[in-house]
Design brief:
166 residues, three-stranded mixed β-sheet, alpha+beta, two-stranded antiparallel sheet
Length: 166
């Protein structure tokens, strides 16, 4: 089990019995369900007038987020549904997300479940995804390709159908 370091908290902070010692909190009940955050990560430069992206947008005449075509929208909705299935099936085995080969830079991008979900929702809402910070030093063994996840999900579905026929 991975432990996060505990920061020293002054005695005046609520939730602290002694300096640097947090008050123990009860563990959630076994039947507790945690909801996924559906909001995309907040842009840290959202209202910053000195954000250099504004200058880049002005230089690029082709920078227009056109809405998705009906076919593209349907594909994105299907991907969002598939992603939820992949996460349910693979996250319990330690898979942290998917790896995507980027056609622009030629590198593999390791994208966590939440970020991929936020990207797909942003694509549906705005017609494009935001630039995001990649994970720090990801372990490639913690991520699978979209094709692997789809094949795994198909295999689980076929196995459950075969078990139901017996």
């Amino acid at each position: 089990m991975r432990r996060h370091p505990i920061l020293a908290v002054p005695r005046t902070q609520p939730g602290c019995s002694q300096v640097g010692t947090p008050i123990p909190r009860p563990a959630p009940a076994a039947d507790t369900v945690f909801a996924m955050n559906e909001d995309p990560p907040r842009d840290p430069f959202l209202d910053d007038p000195s954000d250099p992206v504004h200058a880049l947008e002005a230089l690029d005449d082709a920078y227009v987020n056109e809405p998705l075509s009906p076919e593209e929208r349907e594909d994105a909705l299907n991907d969002l549904e598939d992603l939820e299935i992949f996460r349910v099936l693979l996250e319990s085995d330690g898979v942290r997300g998917v790896v995507v080969d980027c056609a622009d830079c030629g590198e593999a991008h390791y994208v966590g479940w939440d970020l991929m979900q936020a990207n797909l929702r942003q694509l549906l809402d705005a017609g494009a995804t935001r630039v995001h910070e990649p994970p720090f030093d990801p372990d490639p063994h913690d991520y699978v390709t979209w094709d692997y996840a789809r094949g795994f999900a198909d295999g689980v579905m076929r196995a459950s159908e075969a078990a139901g026929e017996d």
